[in-house]
Automatic annotation (TrEMBL):
InterPro entries: ConA-like_dom_sf, DUF1349, UCP022704. This is Regulation of enolase 1. Transmembrane segments: none annotated. It holds the Pfam family DUF1349. It comes from Streptomyces roseochromogenus subsp. oscitans DS 12.976. SUPFAM superfamilies: Concanavalin A-like lectins/glucanases.
């Protein structure tokens, strides 16, 4: 199913399990079902590499920033709302507001064959601003408590410039251990530029 959002200048398409995506009055809403996640464990334990979660993705061109305020209806450990970038079946990354495992936390996962897992900082309440940026072959993750001052979280790549230039970018919901959760995304913004400085808070 294709979805068009007035604040996003490219069409979005649903991937994975049904996320019951909806958009009304500037708010995008998605649902994760029980035990839905995307994570390829580096330890060879537990989680299925073929696991999947609801995604709503599109293909922006050139340099960009995708920004949203993410609010999660936490119910279980590792429930999360995610900004997501996808280059291939084993080349993708997540910027998450996650219950990790008992406090809301900004965390990231970068998957190149197998996933890593990195917690950045905790958040009071159930909302935070997230931002994905791209220039050339590079991606950057930032997070903000107020949508004004941004904390640099991560800089990485998922392949060469041709591969990353064709990346799919958008939204994901997950509930790896729980019975499901709802995530809302509002204050959506899209900019056709890479941040001027990754570390100065802008």
């Amino acid at each position: 199913m294709d979805v068009e959002l007035p604040d996003i200048p490219f069409p979005l398409r649903t991937y994975g399990p049904d996320g019951h995506w909806s958009y009304e009055d500037g708010v995008l809403t998605g649902w994760a079902g029980p035990r839905q996640d995307r994570f390829v464990t580096p330890t060879g334990e537990a989680l299925d590499p073929a696991s999947d979660a609801p995604r709503l993705l599109g293909a922006p061109e050139g340099d960009f920033q995708l920004i949203a305020r993410v609010t999660v209806g936490f119910g279980a450990a590792f429930d999360a709302g995610v900004l997501y970038v996808h280059v291939g079946d084993r080349a993708w990354a997540k910027l998450c507001l996650e219950y990790s495992p008992d406090v809301p936390t900004v965390c990231t996962v970068v998957t190149r064959g197998h996933s890593d897992d990195c917690n950045s900082f905790t958040v009071e309440g159930s909302s935070v601003w997230l931002r994905i940026s791209r220039t050339g072959r590079a991606f950057a993750f930032h997070a903000s408590r107020d949508g004004e001052r941004w904390t640099f979280v991560r800089l990485f790549t998922l392949g060469d410039e041709k591969e990353t230039g064709a990346a799919l970018v958008g939204f994901m919901t997950q509930s790896p251990l729980g019975e499901g959760c709802v995530v809302t995304y509002d204050r959506l913004r899209f900019r056709t530029a890479w941040p001027a400085d990754l570390r100065d808070g802008s």
